[in-house]
Task: structure prediction
Amino acid sequence: MKNLFLILLAFSLNVNAQDAKTYSFTLQDAINHALQNNYAAINATRDIESSKQKKWETTAAGLPQINATVDYQNNFELQKSLIPAEFFGGNPGEFTEVAFGTKHNMNARATLSQLIFDGSYIVALQASRTYLKFYQNAKQKTAIEIKEMVINAYGNVLLAEENIAILQKNKTVLDKTLFDTKETYKNGLIEEENVEQLQITLSTINSNLNNTKRLLDIANKMLKITLGIDINDELNLTDKLDVLSASNLNLALSKKDFNVANNVNYLIATNFQEQRQLEYKLQKSKALPTLSTNLNFGYNAFGNQFEFFSRNQRWLNYSNLGVALNVPIFSSLGRSAKTQQAKIALEQAKTQLTETEQKLKLQHASAKSEYEFSIEEFITSKTNLNLAERIEKKQQIKFTEGLSSSFDFSEAQRQLYAAQQNYLQSMVNIINKKAALEKITN
Result:
């Protein structure tokens, strides 16, 4: 039984391994893949398809409509009326009960209707185009946001990988230093405090290394979700952090003029204003008359027995043509109140558009400043890292030769480790801040 269980387990693992896919992406490959497979991108495409169908639904409302109806009525108890009895030879003043109609009635008819004029229909056609434009802009916004999300997630994975590599390197160096220090302590040449201080530093590195490995797993899964792939699939990133950061060093980008009209948020705010404009026109159009026509053609049949499908059943045809003209005359100022509400909403939309424009200009200035600062921070952190490495190296030599205390050496190590983290983070910041600036400028 135990062997059977192991065989089934191995088979299950093998099947799962076969189902898993393997991907290798550069940053640009990852962006391209996410734009097609990200869950939000897929639904944004569906929204556009839905809005196209909504546009046709609105258009079809003004086109000919044909409906067919079949009515059946079973008068199991016919309604009766009273008629003076003298009509049938009875006594004056008396009444006789008479039932009119038949027990079974059936009516089959077809109706052709056509809208001739309706001001609200014209406005609805314009609104359907605006509705479609809104979702097209929303899809563009989704694509821009997905691109930024992929860049940030891709950078976080690279950061975690570089972090692990540096921590492992530091651990290797510290393991050797600790071993040498223990040997020196055994020979009675240094105090035990020097060994203990290094052990504390090593424990911290081990803890940070384990935590960073867990963060790498989480960052990988977050990137996979952003890409729209299964979190159990294997993902390999082919770009390197230092190469990406170097390719994103472009101060010329921050010098470009910002055209707020190209920003997708401004386009969406403009679209919102257009919607309010159409809603205002719609309320005004409701004061106009509407004209429609319909053509009816049908058959009636009657009988005390249900024989409508027999050859002997008699069907009586009828047809008519109708025209309906509806002229709004007086609504106790109700339409006027709705029109004024729509006008106020339009003015609010105009104000919101102005506010959006000003906020976007502020966001651009902020993103530009942060990108320029990230470049300065990168240059500074690179210089600081070189200095920290030199200082740590000198302190290590002094510590080994007994010319420096364990406290001074540990302080130099902490300073080096902090400089390493700052340098890695500065490279990621360049990538992320450039993405944020490009998001504003589109």
